[in-house]
Structures are given as C-alpha cells and as structure tokens.
C-alpha cells in the first residue's frame, strides 16, 4: 500500500529509528469516510491511492519500487517546436495519430478518411476528426521536411553511398509494373500496355476520369473472372516489402471497369495469415461473422475513374482486430445496435455497460465468442472507449501493437487497370492522407450555408439535468469550421492550383455570421452578456461558450486571414489587369475584410473574458454556469486544461496581450500544483 505523510508534528526529542513503533490506525475523513492508514511514531501515513482519487493526483511507484512519482495533473503539455505558421505544422498536431484513436472505427475505404463513433456507435464521417486527420499528417510532413532541410544545411547528408539510399531502405518500393511479374491462372488475362497507354483503355473511362492524367509509363489490363479459384498473383520475395517501416500500400493508377478488387495476403503476429480485400462495388467495409482471416474494404464505385488507392495496412489490421480484443463478445456486438447518444457526463462505455447489465438481467445475454447471426461486423466495431489526452474527447491509442511479418502475395480480380503496386512508409504517403481529408471537405460542405454538417445526435448534459439540450443530426460546429479552414489554407498553399480548397475555406466563413440559437445547422455565433461575440463549438440555445473549440476557430480565421493577405499582396503586385481573382463573385479584398472582422471580434472577446475560465487551480471547460446559474460548473479535465495551455502558448505569439500572457502564466503553473492565494 502506497502511503504519504498526512501530518508531521514536531517531536519533543529525537527518537532512534529502531525505537519508532509502526501501527495500523483508522483515518476518519471529514467524519464521513474511514480509510486504513499507518502510524509511524508521530507521523500518520495515508494511502496514496486514496489521495489520488480524492485530490485527482497522478503517479505511482517507479519500476524498481524505490521511488514514488507524484504529479498534480496527468496532462501532457505540448510545447511547440516551431513558431506558429498558417502554412506549417498546426499547433501540436504532429504528436497525434488520429486514425489509431479508440473512437475511430476505421479509415473509410471509399473516402480515405476516419469513420468516427463519437456520439454514434454506428459510425459517421465527423468533420473535426477528418480535419484533425489531415492536419496531423500535414504537421508531421512539415516537421519532417524542416528536419531534413536542417540536416542538409548542416552538411549531414553528404554520404551518397549510405545504405539508406539503397532500394532496400528506400521510403517507397515499386512492384508489378511488368506483366511477367504476375502469375495468371487459366481463364484470366493480364496484358501490359505501353506507349500512349491511356488512349488504349477500353471501354474508355468517364469524361471526368479521362482528364486525370496517369503517372505511370505503362498500364496492366487485367480480366480475372470471379468464378476462378484464384486471381492473378504477384508473389513477393521473403524479404517483405513492409520491412523498414513500409506498411502503406499504394495502388498507383487504379481504374475499375467491372468489380475490380485487390487482395493482400500477409502473416501477422496476432492472427497468423490474414487477407485484406480492397474492392470496387462492395456495399461497405465489413468482416464476415466468425471469419478472422478476411477483411473487406469498399474502395469506390464503378465510374470513379483513375485514382491512387492508399491504405495503411497496419492501421487496417489494428481496426479489424479490435473486435477480438475485448473480454466479452457482448461489447463487440454493441457496434451493431443503436445505443443512442451518451450523456455528457457518462462515457459511451458506461452506456454500454448499463445496457449489457439490463440485457443479462432480462436473460438475454449472449455467450462469449458469438455474434448476432447474419450480422456482418465492420472493422473496428466494439472496442471499449476511454478518454484521451488529445483535447477533443476522441479516445486514446491503446490498441495492442500489430506487426506485419511478411506480405506473401497480392492478387487482382475483376476487370480493370493498374499502373504499379507500391509499398511506402507513412512519411512518404502523407500527401495522400492529407489530400484525402481536403477532398472530403470540398465534397461534403453545404454549398449554400458553408457549413460542414455533423450527422450525429449530440446530447448536452446528463438526463438528470433540468436543462438537457440536444443537437439533432446536421448541426455545425465552430471548432469544425475552424479546423477545416486551417487544413484547407495549408493545402491551397501547398497546391496553389487547387482553387477549390481556397473557395471552400472562404465559404466556411458564412456560419460565423449566423446566430447559433436560431439555426444550429448553419450558424455558430452567440453573444455572451449580450456584449461579446463567441463562436460556439456546440450551437445550443443560451450558449455553452466552450473555450477550446472557440480558440480553435480563431486559429482557422487567423490562418485564412494570413493566406488572403498574401494572395491580395501578390495580386496587387501583378501588372496584369485580368489578375483580379474572384471567389463566389467577390474579390479577395472583400473576403479579406470579412475574415479580418471575424477574427478581430473573436479575439477581443477572448481577451475580455479569459479570466472567467480560471477557477484558481485549473480552468473551466465552458461557461454554462455563468449564463445559467442553476448549472453546476464544468471544470476542465486535466487533458483539456493542457489543451488550453498549449493553445495560449501559440496564441500569445500572435497576440501578446497582457491578459492572455497572465492567464498563460497561471494556467501553466496549475499543472504543477500551484493554487492562487486566499483572500
């Protein structure tokens, strides 16, 4: 039992250590709770586990058991490694791996973005998680690029004979470009097209697809009937292409003519031989009941045209194996039923546990190792949820590690075209990941309102609350708008020819002008004390005034303001009279003035009310107790408090206002146990 000193009266005279008597005593806490303690002479020791629970401490014994580590908080503080830039790493998001979070069911085969189970266990495409997925990969890529630049400038990359330059250690390795690399069964055809290969594609792809120029010198045309026992196979050498961290599969210049699919067979440390099937025409991503070896991902529909399919094999395996990691199949089956929205103060796991107890009390509990008959289990269903330290309530990364021991072969079925097969490191594939997130934002924005709707029911407050508010599916969030804009700004800067990224970012400003209480599907603006404008993460009547979501929206506005400032300066410096760029009929100058007003208004609100979020040894998550005195205050968990500190660290480099700097100084000290003085 870990103990710590509760009280240490000054002894009258020194007592030899050998003469100190140790006895068990009872500690009566507040005259209401009894705890087993230890008395050693004049000192009383209280169990550390009790203190952790009562005072929200963190820590424990060291590995050798000779030291006790005591922490006032469990928050992980993310200190920025580079100055904040709207074109570089986004805050601390390079530390995130969004696709491996507990609350991510899987990465969608069709869209290439995370499917979230936050607030809906069936899964939905959640704009905040999609934007964070893109921002995390973009941030990692930015830091990796900067690291290489510094190494090159320091002369650390002069050895061109290094093993790292060899094909074995290359970030990307290519396979299967020649027809002779493949073994084709009887009754199937595989033909290599060279020269102007695109012109020889038959039947020709849709007009939009024809405009997508392929990047490979040759193409393989395959026709493998579905009734054959095996497909056209590319057998890989025993030195697995996934060595040296190349766990990302890229199907370059892939075009389906009729139900084309690709299967990857590999051996793993978790389930022996496993096959991942990526096919056009599958209804959804799924795993057949009782089948632990075959996982299916739908990667599009006929007529999608040329594309490069990018899949992180390790992530796909982890999400598929999550179903098998729970002690009870009851939990794994929960993903197949609608448990409704969880209360804000009750985790989804708590709802599941309660429903499971109810089922068992009614005699309807299912045995272990069984799933509901006829139910296809989607990869990633059923994992227990827990809170995370990433400040978005998105679940941590506690999956047991999956290792790919060897990729044995890749096979083709159906009718289609393929340029080549690549295995790449996650770093080499990052542009595919953040491009997928940006393309999703363009495709899923409401063009008339500028909002990215969230298709999950959100309940605010527990069922015991008198003012329990519910956001019906289709609501929009200032945090979602802001982080989406931050990603689109970076992508447009990275690919200036993608004007659709810029246009979507500008349209995303519209909800900041609309009242949240009047229309939660199209507005995020609220008024605090009828004086300060606030951009609501949860647009409910009366307002919640969540701090971290509001600050994220300010970063989005700042990023777009800087991009439009740079584009306007470039346009003004052009000698061409036709260089005037319009977005939705308005000039860059007009959009710049718009976003500047929104940012300045929001920033002034933050500076004015930042003190309301301070409770003397931590911060409040929101201000619901201020706008509605019958509500209990909601203290920010330590992980959210850490996000508040990290946000202010970056924000004060842009806006060094004394009110923000004073708050940052106190809030950072709270993480180490500091408390403000009494009166």
Automatic annotation (TrEMBL):
The organism sits in which domain of life? Eukaryota
Give every D-glucuronyl C5-epimerase C-terminal domain span. 448-669
Kindly list the GO CC terms recorded for this protein: Golgi apparatus
Task: Give the GO biological process terms.
Answer: heparan sulfate proteoglycan biosynthetic process; heparin proteoglycan biosynthetic process
Print the keywords alphabetically.
Isomerase, Membrane, Signal-anchor, Transmembrane, Transmembrane helix
Q: Which reaction does it catalyse?
A: [heparosan-N-sulfate](n) = [heparan-N-sulfate](n)
Reply yes or no: does the keyword Membrane apply.
Answer: yes
Q: What is its EC number?
A: 5.1.3.17
Q: In which pathway does it act?
A: Glycan metabolism; heparan sulfate biosynthesis; Glycan metabolism; heparin biosynthesis
What compartments host this protein? Endomembrane system; Membrane
What's its membrane topology? Single-pass membrane protein; Single-pass type II membrane protein
Stretches the record annotates as Disordered: 144-169, 343-400
**D-glucuronyl C5-epimerase beta-sandwich domain spans which residues?**
219-330
> Of which family is this protein a member?
Belongs to the D-glucuronyl C5-epimerase family.
Query: What is the protein named?
Result: heparosan-N-sulfate-glucuronate 5-epimerase
